[in-house]
Amino acid sequence: MVFDLLYVNGDWLNAYPLSDRIERLQQWLPLADPIHLVPTYDNGDALFASVKEKHMEGIVSKKRNSRYGIGGKNGNWRKIKVTEDLIAVVGAVTYRDGRVNALLIGQYNSEHRLVYIGRVGSGSLTSQDWQAVTRLAELLKSPANPFERQPKDVKKVSWLVPQLTVKIEFQEWTENGSLRQPRILAFVDENPDQCILEEGSDEGGNFP
After folding, report:
1. Alpha-carbon distance 48 to 64, whole Å?
2. CA gap 51, 46 in Å, rounded
3. Which residues contact 191 (CB under 8 A, 6 or more apart)?
4. Could you tell me the fold of the domain covering 84-194?
5. How far, in Å, CA of 208 to CA of 200, rounded?
6. Domain map of the chain by residue range?
7. Can you tell me whether residue 101 is helix, strand or coil?
8. Could you tell me the pTM of the whole model?
9. Interacting residues of 94 by C-beta distance below 8 A, sequence separation 6+
10. Could you report the per-residue pLDDT of 81-102, keeping only the tens digit for each?
11. What region holds the DNA ligase ATP-dependent C-terminal domain (predicted)?
């Protein structure tokens, strides 16, 4: 799969607009198996909607008049991933240097048992947000594991009374019932009992 042309017949084309490079690529590329030209689309919104409907990973968006920048990133192209979001319950936290640095999250299954769905430490929270989470975690500490089963490969956690709820963005569900590439969007005022696993995810993930 070929999507750009930077050098041909001794000439560098990186200073040419993307539209010109694609036109030259169409002229020079022998379009026959196994070589294929990546198709381009003018309506990015429609393409993204189609990709999302088909549960594909995402699209790459580029400015048609952009030059090719060598040696670094620029704002002329972006990878736009398809993501989902959900509300989860915080059942435990981990610490680093005396401050919470990650959340262990879950949702309730049909038997109202909290099922572990992943560990998340990245996202939109500021340093002040993490400090606030640390204070809340101290108030909600519990000796009991609130999850139905023991999360795997997670050590030195502090269990919490499952009252905090958080909005999570993620790429997809994995085969073992956990979230792929989860990110924290925000803490939300949601009834923890309403954080229900979607159908087909009752087993949760990351267990021994």
Report:
1. 17
2. 9
3. 165
4. OB fold (Dihydrolipoamide Acetyltransferase, E2P) (2.40.50)
5. 20
6. 7-81, 84-194
7. strand
8. 0.72
9. 100, 101, 102, 104, 119, 121, 154, 156, 157, 158
10. 878 899 999 999 999 999 999 9
11. 97-185
